[in-house]
Amino acid sequence: MYTFDIERPATIAEAVNALGGETMPLSGGQTLIPTLKARLASPDKLVSLAGVSEMQGISLDGGILTIGGTTVHADVATNGSYPALSQLAANIGDPAVRNRGTIGGSIANNDPAACYPAAALASGATIVTNTREIAADDYFLGMFDTALEEGEIVTAVKFPIPEKANYQKFVQPASRFALVGVFVAKTSDGVRVAVTGASNEGVHRWNAAEDALAADFSAAALEGLTVSSDDMISDLHGSPEYRAHLVKVMTARAVSAAS
Amino acid sequence: MTKVTMTINGKSVAGEIEGNTLLSAFLRDDQRLTGTHVGCDTSQCGACVVHVNGRPVKSCTMFAAEAEGAQVSTIEGQANADGSLNVIQQAFQDHHGLQCGFCTPGMVMTTAALLKDNPKPTVDEVREHLEGNICRCTGYHNIVKAIMAASGQDVSAIAAE
Amino acid sequence: MPKDDGIGAATVRREDVRFLTGAGQYTDDIKAYGETAAVFARSTVANGIIKSIDTTAAAAMPGVLAIFTGEDFVEVGGNPAGWLINSRDGTPMHEPKRPVLAHGKVRHVGDAYAAVIAETVEQAKNAAEAIEADIEELEAIVNMKDALAGSNFVHDEIGTNQCFDWGWIEDNREATDAAIKGAHHVTTLELVNNRLVPNAMEPRSSRAEYRAANDEYVLHTTSQNPHLTRLLISAFVLGIPENKLTVIAPDVGGGFGSKIYHYGEEALVLAAAKKLGRPVTWTADRSEAFLTDAHGRDHVTKIELALDEDGNFLAFRTETLANVGAYLSNFATATPTFLHGTLMAGNYTVPNVYVNVKAVFTNTAPVDAYRGAGRPEATYSLERVIDKAAREIGRDPIELRRQNFIKADQYPFASAAGLEYDSGNYDALMDQMEKVADVAGFAERRKASEAKGLLRGFGVNAYIEACGIAPSNLVGVLGSRVGLYDAATVRVNATGNLSVMVGAHSHGQGHETAFPQVVAEMLGIDAAAIDIVHGDTSKIPFGMGTYGSRSLAVCGSAVVRATEKVINKAKKIAAHMLEVSDGDIEFNDGQFSVAGTDKSVSFGDVALKAYIPHEFPLEDIEPGLEETAFYDPANFTYPSGAYCCEVELDPETGKVTVESMTAVDDFGNVINPMIVTGQVHGGLGQGIGQALLENTTYDENGQLLSASYMDYAMPRADDVPFYTVDHSQGNACTHNPLGVKGCGEAGAIGSPPTVVNAVIDAMQSGGKNVTHIDMPVTPHRVWSAMQNA
After folding, report:
1. Under CATH, which architecture does the C31-138+201-254+259-292 domain have?
2. Do C31-138+201-254+259-292 and C299-469+635-788 come out as alike in CATH topology?
3. What is the pLDDT of residues A20-57, one digit of tens each?
4. FRET label pair with C761: which of A1, B149, C296, C391, CA 20 to 30 Å apart?
5. Which chains touch C (3 or more CB pairs under 8 A)?
6. B108 near C CB under 8 A
7. Which helix (H) or strand (E) is A105 found in, with range?
């Protein structure tokens, strides 16, 4: 790693003040630290968010689950208020990673194979930052790209809890990230289906499936649909056609398992 | 250089660190606790697992500065007070749950965390819990068996020797 | 006398205590005053001309103590190949120089062209990045067929990318061709034995100290064979006299072959330690390990099996391209030849075998022996083509194998591939396998899987392998440049405890526990009184180290011979003490007694007398009780086995899970069944990894795509089942004193074809006529194969 300092502010305001220039926010570090080890980033300062108490914790209010940005995956996994989300969190990385990795870090990084972006997009979550609230539909802009401005940090994510939901992840065998992950959420307003891992465009919704499932929330409703392999990722672990195929399989399984 | 203080295996320690000093490096190089091993750069192998404030973490993927004031437990602090192997360590020896020994500290620390949360895990739960700990020697059979035995469950049905 | 810590006891391992308490001492754990760090500047291109290297800016950076480039090593030797292979036309193989640091050209991604020594690792990394290397990238040579056809060479001075073109046995070629031509049925299969990265969990590390007062060097290094490493450094690379260089392999975190070889990093830290007068340590990152550890396998093979109308095997014929990478690693040329071609008759009475292997240089990491080394490649080719043949001619795969097995009364058996198998009983292994795996119950289990929407497949395999490669006289004729004996010194201390210094190295194999079991059994004393000393050239006799499942069969035999010498001498001392002639002394349970009397002295009494030789017949017997033996085996040992497994296959996703894996092995006699079983487990895990997960892929530019655990899938606990391991059907090796055969590699040899055969069976059961699929059998590959079938 290159040389840098670490600053450990106690409030969001202090953290935001400390950012700027060649600084980077440090949340759980489970992606950032390997990146730094590979010398792929050279900040002169990291601003650790771990000590910002305003960004910690989980609360349920009026059917909205608010999760502080520095809440680790392990705490979401054991919360249980939103079972599909807890199940998703319980399968990110491994137990040790889940004790450090945070929802804010994941949402801010928007790795195209990460799990949380699928949950946020399918649930119609709201991304809360130090300056504003952003609807998930407006937040995820593509692979590693989000609506966050320079120096803006994710302080919380608000999840409306759907009637039924489920997340199905088909893992890439080495990294155990999603080769394809599909989050399905059914609410009184309809059905939202978000796909991660599959596309060069990053996390995205599968509108045709949403329409079909809104009419008939069953795996059978998906049978006539096809998923285009255009823009699907091609790598060592799967072709675009395979990923497109898995999107449909995982969606069907998520619908069948939704509760 | 900045100063960091933490409690390691019940002992309060202080040291000088850089911003980029990893907890694993602080343990190994500064504290000379070399039982914590580093086997990869991508936070996957788990040879470096220690407990911070009672939770298992990968010490190669956490800065020492972030452990300021924390309670840290490492493999060197796991044996019983009289120096004998604790229940988990003893089960690993009894069931040949290690060969070259390099991944072993991480396996023991991960097991300790599992059994604290889930004292009687199923075999599937054990295997799932070891997702972040890679062993190249044992094929995992005897590690899983040792963990089941450490949890007090009957392992006689798991193939012998 | 069954001893609870003697031969056959499942004694728990004494070395575990230090590993379980964090007290193991691996190379990177060793630190002293004045420590410095070495970091290498490595090529980011697969093939390139080094136009210039400017270290000026780097040298001025904070903490930098020294910088080395290839220029600094042009006067010293290269890292040699340990085995000379002659091509079919009698010409010797091509042996390009492998320098300490690349000079003139870089030849694979990760090839080191400079090294920085600094006060800290991070300072050294900063400086390594600041080295200005002007490297002109050339077109990379990656694919073996293209490498043989093209005019772009990894080593320009050779003028070809073919290292050798080897035939085995050349005299069998015509008969084999004729047998295939006239056969009733010929099954042909083209397959890839996938390249693997060994991935011992401890990355390679080397640490050197130089003691100017005596002009002595000490090298701590991650080695499976410290004496061999010292010999290579002394005699070939740096020319440091052997008696001025101590090589210590302390605790080593796994090897699997990758730590047999001498690597340039070892020479570099030695040179740097002398230059600086300070300890110099280099420890690989995992990413460096991926790029620079010797890889394994990487064969592309066409195999043909000829059968008569009754299903008798008439001939096996293979053509193999074996990738040796950019440079010849120490045993790279032995692995695809004498450790592979000689096994191509398998467990069968087949009369004709001909093997052709072309070794090919490419701009990739060197390839050498990895757990099994040649034998997994042979077994995979044989057992896949046999399975395919059984399907083609409508025979049960177990019955077809049995029909062609060498029978129990045919030993010693001269195989058509040139080996003499000493003992075995393949039908008994298959009987036991069918029993313990409940093969008869498979149909019911398949129904249960199908009820869940999953396909279930059964795969079977029989293997034979050759361990403890020997004897030196034979391997010398075949091209080996080393002997393949091992050595042990048994030192009985005055107070009656023992230090046994061995040439083998334990890095997971449990020698510290198993070897004392042998000595304790022979001497009738507690194993706890016996310590094994290994890994330090200043303490142990010259032995060849640990690889090829040789430790117990070869070094263990040396231990037996040395212990026999100790007993013989001790009998003489006891005879003197008891005032009788040597021939009257009996030795049992640690007591020397006079036959037919109650007169006796204990082993401890004799030991003390040996070192306090008062009233001692010094004219007949020297004082002391310490003996050394070198043991050079008469033949290989031939472990064999019958394996089967069952897989479930999800036809929607292509995902395969191994539901059961049964390994029935003939290891001859077993010293510690717990350790033997553990060795098989480990091999099975690695074999399942090769079959389903591990994929080493270079792109057309020679960039390693699977260069970290993010893309190289290591087997994890939830990728494997509990295994059923059985070694009840042992037939003792006939030519070593323990009757042991070697167990370290069997699991990795026997399991890959077993898994792939099961996957094919599963796909066939789903109505998909897929006859072959290459490893690793990833979900994507399975799905694609089923789409196209």
Report:
1. Alpha-Beta Complex (3.90)
2. no
3. 889 999 999 999 999 999 999 999 999 999 999 999 99
4. C296
5. A, B
6. yes
7. helix A103-109
